Amino acid sequence: MSNTSLFQEFPEVSAKQWKQKIQVDLKGADYNETLVWESLEGINVKPFYNQEDLKNSPSYALPKDHDWSIGQDIYVGDEKKSNAKALEILEKGVESLIFTIPNETTGFETLFSGIDLKETKLYFNFEFLALEPIKKLVAFLKDNKAKAYLNIDIIGHLTEDGNWYHNLEDDHKIFTELVSLGTSDISIIGVDASHYQNAGANMVQQLAYSLAHANEYLNHIVTSSAVEKSFPLTFKVAVGSNYFFEIAKIKALRWLWESLASAYGVQSACNILAIPSKRNKTLYDYNVNMLRTTSECMSAVLGGADTVCNLPYDAIYHKDNEFGERIARNQLLLLKEEGYFTEASQISEGAYYIESLTKQLAEKALVLFKQLEKTGGYLEALKKGTIQQKIKESANKEQQLFDEGKIVSLGTNKYQNPQDRMKDDLELYPFVKQKARKTIIEPIIEKRLAEASEQKRLNDE
Q: From residue 250, how far is each of 91, 204, 345, 406, 450 by CA, in Å?
């Protein structure tokens, strides 16, 4: 069999030739005005890309054995009920469990009863910061040879809440002791990058602030003799509907983190937990949310996320319910089992458009990150309110585009169903909660794009 390339007989076509042909077909219309558009990140997107766009440019490739797991979250209000739910969903295809732990009295032996901890990846979200109960959990996990990600993120809590758990000194003291317990299988540190996306930050900001956020932990770790120079770290990212950009965002995040860690002489694996964004989810015509989350989960997989946890279509207004969770889980199962997305993260490698976006997002984020570091770093910028202001500016720009219909949300700002009624179906308050309280910094507030229009529609029902 000949090894001759199928396309060898065709002459190569340069980018210049492609552009000339397009300009002829445009019949006088301006190429840039007609076909080139600018993203919210300031990236000019062209109508075509070829190998010239990647000439002499570095790229980032995932390990060849990279795979992803299906995750589902469980709120641990009752250990026995949560354990029963965990066992049930593991039988239904879930591969990673994400536990939200609300208090210090949780009985972990009861919670994990019957779960094969050697085969099931565990993620945690603690709503408190306390040394002894988490130390006991880590000891239990080590004894059972579990693979776990604790996601201790004191800076993330400050960013979202406006206050430390206790105070700066106590939080960092507990954090340092907990980090010293980490191993290659027990990841202690997490960075919640999803909060930036859900608050309206553009992708360059999401990447730069996530990197600066993580850099605060690196600065803390390298000065601590109790911490080894090798540790895993988890980023939790929210994925929006800009399909190809979101693929590139996740690839760029992993690339940036590995570059940053290597600059410190630290060997750190990057674990990425991806969830769909809340920012574009809607109260009315809520079934469309299933289409949105399917696209977003696909972006997460193709971008190289390690675990993907879907968001139920009714999550913004319904309490946990079996139907919504089953549909969300089955969306991921369809992608993995019927859509053959088992090892699909490799598919996006070498795609000129995605590789170009990845490079541009990484470069722009690195510039913004360096600017932050020159002015004192993430915490200093947070204290001054700089980050909050920049995210507000980005969110307001996106909101204006949404209000003008330039960002389309089907069933909400376009093709509304006037017969939709939601007032009697709200089990959860789906809007930003206004509650005056004293904080040491201005918190970064998550807000959905459709909130104002939905409140008006509810009032008009």
A: 29, 11, 11, 25, 25
